[in-house]
Amino acid sequence: MQFLKKHYEKIILCVVLLSLAAASIWMGAVFTKLQEEVNQPISEGAHKTNRPVPLDLTADLLALAQVTNPPPVVLSGEHNLFNPVTWRKKANGELLKILKTGPDALSVTNIAPLYTVIAYDHPSGNGAVYIMSLQVHSAKRPLEYAKLDEKTKSGLYIIRGIEGAADNPTELKLEIPETGETVLVSTNNPYKRVDGYLADMKYDPESRTLLKERVNETFTLDNEQYKIVEITSNVVRVQSIKNTKITTIKWNGNP
Asked: pLDDT tens for residues 189-204?
């Protein structure tokens, strides 16, 4: 026991060295065996039998394509990650999801044309004056008295000639100063042109309707003022009073 106590470190070191030597001999034998197996010729049949089956990489290729070509990040639209949604309660208690506000939420429900109409109504008693019927922007005016080659009170036309008897002409030749036209009118064939439009719109966020709106009229949406700057047969353009931004609202119907 005294010997073991004095020399136990040397005994352990000898055991470790012997183990390493044994491991080296064993590894050399294994390496030699593996080398012999690798160097053996492979027969034709064994080569075909042990041929590995090709891997199905379809799913991996699809995943790789998605990673290399990611879809674009859309920060606008109807999702709510970066665009919180406002909910408002209607008069009947139903909740309404508000995706747009301001003029972007306006929709045109109808556009109606406004007409200027000049019609020959009847001659006066002495035949020197002719009674004319007028409409401007589709609004009727009182009958107007007109004489040949004289400027009328309305300024819309000048009679430049007559067809038929002076006291009961069949047609009047009119000059239209605004357009430079020369036209013939009779009791059954008036002069008519479109000179503007009326627009009907609705605003869902406030459950409102805007009826018979004209150019230059103003209105309020969510405490912001706007003005109609143009109305055509299929478009209404609205301008913000605050920042002068113009929003175009299209209509797909027919006037």
From this structure: 999 999 899 999 998 8
CA distance 233 to 203: 20
Distance CA(101)–CA(83), nearest Å, equals 13
Of the pLDDT bands very low, low, confident and very high (cuts 50, 70, 90), residue 17 is: confident
Say what the pTM is: 0.56
Cβ-count burial 33-57 (b if 16+ within 10 Å, e if not): eeeeeeeeeeeeeeeeeeeeeeeee
- Which sequence spans correspond to the domains of the chain? 100-111+196-250, 115-193
Q: DSSP letters along 8-77, please?
A: HHHHHHHHHHHHHHHHHHHHHHHHHHHHHHHHSPPPHHHHHHTPPPPP--HHHHHHHHHHHSPPPP--SS
Which residue, among 107, 103, 109, 104, has the nearest Cα to 200 in the 3D structure? 109
Rounded Cα distance, 185 and 162, in Å:
10
How many CB atoms neighbour CB 164 within 10 A? 11
- Work out the end-to-end distance of the chain between its first and last CA atoms, rounded to an integer number of angstroms: 119
Q: Tell me which of 2.40.10, 2.30.30, 1.20.120, 3.40.50 is the CATH number of domain 115-193.
A: 2.30.30
DSSP state of 244: -
**Both structure tokens of 71:** 């879809």
**Tokens in use for 186?**
């009779």
